[in-house]
Amino acid sequence: GQQLNQSPQSMFIQEGEDVSMNCTSSSIFNTWLWYKQDPGEGPVLLIALYKAGELTSNGRLTAQFGITRKDSFLNISASIPSDVGIYFCAGPGYNFNKFYFGSGTKLNVKP
Amino acid sequence: KAGVTQTPRYLIKTRGQQVTLSCSPISGHRSVSWYQQTPGQGLQFLFEYFSETQRNKGNFPGRFSGRQFSNSRSEMNVSTLELGDSALYLCASWDTSYEQYFGPGTRLTVT
Question: Which of A51, A98, B68, B75 is in the most buried spot, having the most CB atoms within 10 Å?
């Protein structure tokens, strides 16, 4: 079945650095969503992508819907301590009959 | 618009007891999903409801059940609690866009 592979699993970076993470699927996705989760809280939707090749920004965050429709990327520029958390990619499967989540990228930012 | 609300936020139960968790979706959202999140397992899909009908069910034992009411509010129930049921239970609601919005979660501890 469809699975979302997210990498890296964790990252330790210095404040001010740029961050990049990605998500790949064995099957085509029609929608890619990126979430951020703080400890003990529910995930918060950051960016939604609907079209292959689409590049969307939300402040210092930029996400791209891969041309093959099997991958997506999230970049964070000039990281700050409050960027710490777990970032998930997600989306409905090709037939929209099930929702999939990546395993998450844990981001640590050192001040 | 108010976000997704979940009650209670924290719960402590003993093995063998049962528990009911509640979720109120964003106004106008008719789809609700439930997830279990544990540190080692990530987000595990429990069930999905649309207009009071269960559309999808994850791989959980029959002790886990849910329902949705005509106002789209949803409840999930876990009977005969086990220690392994300790987790953060998340509810998400969405409309036709498939952008799932999460509540803050209910932290269940089984002792």
Answer: B68
> In the numeric block, which tokens belong to residue B52?
């009071």
Q: Could you tell me which residues are beta bridge partners of residue A32? A: A49
Residue from B83, B67, B8, B79 nearest B34 by CA: B67
Half-sphere exposure of A46 toward its Cβ, with a 13 Å CA cutoff?
27
B97 touches chain A (CB under 8 A): yes
pLDDT digits (tens, 9 = 90+) for A13-65: 999 999 999 999 988 998 999 999 998 899 999 999 999 999 999 999 999 99
Q: Is the Cβ pair A103, B42 closer than 8 Å? A: yes
State how far the Cα of B45 lies from the Cα of A97, in Å rounded to an integer: 13
A23, A89 Cβ separation under 8 angstroms: yes
Within 8 A of B98 by CB-CB distance, chain A residues are 31, 33, 91-92, 96, 99
Q: How far is CA A5 from the centre of its chain?
A: 11
**A91 neighbourhood in chain B, CB within 8 Å:** 98
Q: What's the start-to-end Cα distance of chain A, in Å?
A: 41
Torsion of CA B94, B70, B2, B45, to 10 degrees: -40
